[in-house]
Write a structure and sequence with these properties.
The protein is mostly beta strands and 362 residues long. It is built from 2 helices and 28 strands. The protein has a 4-stranded antiparallel beta sheet, with no helix packed on it. A 4-stranded antiparallel beta sheet has the order 4-5-6-7, with no helix packed on it.
Length: 362
Amino acid sequence: MRRRQALRGLFALALARAARAEAPPPERYATAWKRDGRDWAALLDIDWRAGRVAVRAETALPGRAHGLEPLADGGVLVVGNRPGRWLWRLDAEGRVVARREWADRPDACTLNGHVIVGVDGNHAWSTETDPRTGRGWLVRRDLRTLAADGAFETHGPDPHQLLHAEAGRIVLANGGIPRDADGRKRDGEPVDSSLVLLDGASGRLEGRWTLPDRALSLRHLAWSHDGRRLGVALQAEHAVHAERAAAPLLAVLDGSRLAVPGTDGRGQGYAGDITPAPGGGFVLSAQKAGRCLWWDPRAPERLTVVAELTEPCALAPSDQGLGVAIGAGLGAARWHADEAPRMMAWPAPLAPDNHWVRLIGV
């Protein structure tokens, strides 16, 4: 009898160990938030199945951050909010390893909140604005020192997010919103938004797209998991509130055609972020409406509500693309194609910022 019980115990222990071995490790994200009156960058370990959010590292910043870019060594670039006058590089433990700040140079170009690592792995590209002229620039920076060493025009004002495209090209969204030198909107002036494709070596303009509704600002970008489509998150700038609230959230570049696939107005005309989703589609965060909405190319005319929560904004792929991680006002959440949704509170009272990224290699 004792031998039988001992064998049962060993068998149960083996099963438990096997289950633990098969459980996926926590996912690591980098984000930014405000806590105790200060701005911070944070590295998070999130175990979705266990329901735990752990702060691995927290680094005080010189001001509010916007976009983040993961690095090959597990670190991250953190970009100052528009008009950004600082750019920091953190290592995988959250330590500052490089910084570039120019708060004392009011006439210098300012960062517009987004950056990507170049294909050579030695440079970064940032979208920036000349505050004297309002012209947009794509600026190349040395990844080690973060110093600028080249620039091309973006062929539009208010450039925002940018991504790599095939054959060494870069696609970026010119938000087109008229702004003063401090980044504030100038009301009453027309929006001049566009999506452009630039050659990464010469800056040559190789494509430019606009939408018929010129009051729609093109801002955030995501490639679908299969790479066939580019999703563009929209921000409505209509003068009439009712028109703004009913405006669509998404445009899609499919091949050579940029179009708005549907007129679903449940997002109140404001998409805070966009990320690829299962099925070749996208999830958008309708921050003001308190919803995350899924666009599926198999039913392109509608958006499906996949989450309702307080101030959802930051989005990133999770679980090898089967899920979407959501950073919201009260905590972290995940929508998953094959699993039940999860929601976990932040470890302390805080105000999360607009974006987060899944870190590379962890």
